[in-house]
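User: Teach me something about this protein's shape.
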Amino acid sequence: MVVLVMVQLLTIAMFLLFGWLILKKEMYGLISGFAMKSEEEQQELINNGYPQASAKGLLNSGYILLIGLLLALFKVPFVIELSWAVMLVYLFGYLLSINKLEAKK
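Assistant: First, the predicted structure itself:
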């Protein structure tokens, strides 16, 4: 249980840190493939709000895992595993929905 909580805490910290860095510090290079795009494509993505939407997805995923961790402290059975399942479904669905913001060639 202790290892599971430690993994959960590390994952939460990474999601929240990367989301914050992208959203507030505009470190768009953390987004996969962003640095490989041309300057015009990068600017179009920024104008479309793609980096901000990606960061919000990371932040919300971190919050989902945090809620699962807090519920685990109240001894709710299997809540950490459930929070991972909810987070994965949310994140994949969210990334599919923001895919329309990506630059067109």
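Now, about its shape. The mean pLDDT is 94. The chain has four helices and no strands. If you'd like, I can walk through any region in more detail.
User: That's plenty for now, thanks!
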